[in-house]
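I am still getting used to C-alpha cells and would like to learn alongside you. Please make up or recall a protein chain and show it to me in full. Would you write everything just below, so we can both look at the same thing?
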Amino acid sequence: MRLVFAGTPEVAVPALDAIAASRHELVGVVTRPDAPSGRGRKLVASPVALRAEALGVPVLKPDHPRDPEFQAALAALEPDCCPVVAYGALLPQSALDLVPHGWVNLHFSCLPAWRGAAPVQHAVWAGDELTGATTFRIVKAMDAGPTFGVMTERIRPTDTAGDLLGRLAEGGAGLLVSTLDHLEDGTIEAREQPEDGISFAPKITVEDAGVDWTEPAVAVDRRVRACTPAPGAWTFHEGERLKLGPVTPTDEAGIAPGTLEVRKQEVLVGTATTAVRLGEVKPFGKKQMVAADWARGVRLASGVRLGDPA
C-alpha cells in the first residue's frame, strides 16, 4: 500500500521507522508545524519531521488538517491508508474521506479503556496492572472507531509513564505494521468497540501533578510515576516549587503528612499512611540532584513541611 504517516513526538518515531522498513511504500509524512523550543525560543521541527527528512520522505506541516492546501497536497500523494501515532490535531471528516482504507491510529491503551490524550499516564495513576496498545480506524468521535488489533503490556511496580510509553511505542510499532499488512491482504476486519468498559484519559496538567501528601503512600507513588517525565511531579518547599522524581514507598510509620525526616543517606516524607523516600529532586533554579545531597546543601532539618505554598 501507499502510505502517508501522521505523527509528531518522539514516541511516534519507532512506528515511522517500522513502516519505512516494511513492504509498504511510504510516500509522505504529516506532522505538526515547527514549534518554539529552548531559551532562545527558536523554531524546531518535530522529532517525526526530523526523522522523515533523514529518510528522504516528503513532509507536510499544515497549521490544521482542514486546510484546503494540505488536503490537496495529501490527495496528490494518493495514499491508500494513513497510519497515525500521536499526531496531535483533530482530523476533520473531509480529511478522513480522502483515504480509501482510512486513517489507522495506534493508541496506547486497550480500547475502550482510556480514550484521550494521556492513556499511559492515567493507567499508571489508576494502578492498572495491565495496559497495551490498539489499532483502530479513526472516526469523528474521539478514539471511538472500530478496532483492528491489540497488544498487552504488564505495568511494572516501578514504571513511570515514560518507561511504559517507551515499551508500548516499540511493541505498538509492530502491531501497526501487522495491521497494515492484513489490511492490504484483506485478512482483517474492524470490530466496533464495546459500550462497556469505556474510560477517559484527558491531558494531565501541571496543576494535576502537584503532590497531595495527605493521600496514602501508594497514591503519592502513582501520581509521581504517572507524571514522570511530563508534566513532572512537584511540591512546595519554602514557597517555591520543588520538582520530584519517582519516590519509593516504605514501611516507616509515624511521620505526619508532608513532614520531612532527614537522615544521613535518605530523606523521607510522611503521607496519610507510611512515608515515602524521595529519589531525585530539582529545586527551583537548580539542577536535578539526589534528595540527600539537596538536604545537606540547604542544611535541611527533620520536621520541615513540604506542600505549603508560602
